[in-house]
User: Fold these one by one.
Assistant:
Number 1:
Amino acid sequence: MTLQDLAKSLHNCQRCKLAKMGRTQVVFGVGNPHASVMFVGESPGFNEDQQGEPFVGAAGKLLNDLLQSAGLSRSDIYIANVIKCRPPNNRDPEPDEVETCKPFLMQQIAMIHPTLVCTLGNWATQTLLERKVGITKVRGQAFYLKNFVLFPLLHPAAALHQGSMLEPLREDFKKLREFLDRNTKPSEPTATPATGPTLHIEPPQPAQMDLFGS
């Protein structure tokens, strides 16, 4: 199965109650299918639901600026959400909705095979870390998981709602740029297909303290 096949299979998804709660369409994901860096948000908002792409509203414009500050562009990365359908009134996703939709996110990650997955906000971070931990405790740090490195970031929408979060959000992307600079190899001129930055991330030393203390 390809990403395109998976997208087609979810085109008119009826697997959870969000299908009957006013969504316009399933918002699957968009970007470079061979990306080394993937971004994962929470769920589509109004603009995303209308246009069928993640991060196209005001938060998307801010994300584009932040990507540029980290030396990335939309053409380098792939963007998806944990939840593929807009919850009514942009409410938080409910546990049964996350459980229903998470397998499709994991399939996207497996197909794209990114080296680095950047989660935006609490829901995406907790879903992929599989721990109830606040974003403010883990933001701007690398977590070495089995199949990829997870790099949690504040959500751009949080900075739009609360102006005081904008500077911390910019700091997160500055840390992301530093992490990328330390781990990116120059791309080979003949390398195909285009993958954006080629990341080579060494696992941490065994002595590195586990941030969760386990």
Note: The CA atoms of residues 32 and 75 lie 6 Å apart.
Number 2:
Amino acid sequence: MRNNRHTKNRVFAPEKTLADKYPPSESCTCEVCLQYCIRPGWWTVEQAKKAMEAGYAPRMMLEISPELSFGVLSPAFRGCESQFADYAFMARGCTFLQNNLCELFGTGLQPLECRFCHHSRRGLGYRCHTDIERDWNSAEGIFLVVQWSKITGFWEREINTE
């Protein structure tokens, strides 16, 4: 067994939150940044919960992981509100993007992925996306998707359309 006398009194820094890891970028309406806005970014589980509490559940959509093991609530494509994400609607853009401006900007409800992505951070979004994916692949994430489905009547509609 390893001697722990060197680590016994060691103080470890608390783990960074996703918001600490991925700080907000400057506001920008350049072509690159607007492209990020057309494809809705993801909230963390806690952010999505706050957005639901603020009454935005009907403007969310459910994205399912490729392996079908968990879901992510995100701002909907226009026309996909309270439904499964249907990529046929992707070109319509995010339901919160109005006149090339985000309705959620400055409200404290803008998704972490949207706040972080910026033309000056090209290539860094993948790490942010992957960390948010891990956040949703959790008991808290599954519970929130179930709550959302009850609020929006999602499962009842899906069952009745089969």
Note: Residues 1-6 have pLDDT under 50 and may be disordered.
Number 3:
Amino acid sequence: MHGSPRVRDLFFSSGRDELRTRLRLPSVPAGLTHLFTDFEWHGLAARVDDLLDINLVNVLVAGWKKHREVREQLRVTAADPSRTVFVYIRSHTLDSTHHPSIELRSEGRRLVELSFPIALTFKIAAVELTLRGGTICEIRSEEVQVRGTVKFENTVILERTLSKVRLPGRIVLDPARPQSADSFRNASARKSRSDSPGTPSPLPPEEARM
């Protein structure tokens, strides 16, 4: 899927100019004044953009893989590659946390590491997952809403209130491409219920491939 949505898209509709305007970095911490001028410190805003370059679909897939029935059926389809399983999950919530950081080094030693934790909560009306060969190979979703924060250490510097995020109604995943990475290990599902495919509500026709 070309131009697949990123976590940065949840916080910015345009580009780096909007980031510099909206990012609320606190003053230079007292312990770092010997490393940064105020001008250099606020120049970090452009670097935070790189930290938000996280594939949004991978975040969701990692959370669904924590769901009990999805986990069980992934094992079933891995053992029998000829088998296809559809898992329908009604209204549910996914929480995902990430801990990117910026490390400053000089002359072979670390000067400081700055932490920018990201917390996201997705409210999903319903989703149908197609499982084959031990992977999630297709996603059909209804409305997805998300709220989130980005912090510098314990200070919120970016915030999104709960609102709808536009995703293609049908996403076909590339089985040759990894669906999640170590940075998504903390994604978890809560308050979710899984049903047999039954007769899901109509899903949007848009399609994308990853």
Note: Helices lie at 8-11, 16-22, 38-42, 45-51, 56-64, 68-79.
Number 4:
Amino acid sequence: MNNTMKRYLAVLLICAGFLLSCGSAPSSTSSGSSTSSTVSPQTQAEIDRRQSIYMQYLRSEGYVPSIDKDNDILVKLDGSNFYILIGKSDPSFLTLLKPSIWSIKSDAERTKAANAVSYANRSTKVAKAFLAGKNNEWVSLSAEMYVDDPNQFGLFFKRLIRMINNTGSEFETQMKM
């Protein structure tokens, strides 16, 4: 492996470690989940308001959203689960997460996945792929942004889905090479 690839891999692993420590998976207790005893009543009210607006939009588009055990919005699109996480400390921060798109079964596959993640992130806009899980045993995808006006959610939701799926396609193409 040349030095450039080693540097990319090192940066990727550092980023993945950071994401893991931030709890990017929806099952993590430190995820964007909006249920927490540390959230002020005013912040919780804003989280609830945004969640209601996002759910209303999804229903109006024919989706069947639900609230998961972490109080995140879950919506199935084309057979895949997507989660909408609203920031606990800043409700204007939104993460659209497509978890566990690829299961990693060996160290060799983990190395290949890290390279494919790096390629996908360099090749696409907005969305990002990352290694996730306690031992980096799967790859997930996400897009993050600040949403000042939650009523504008519908203007970008479908485009974010396309960006996430495009990043996933780039990742999978690299894994199949």
Note: The helical segments are 3-22, 41-60, 107-123, 153-175.
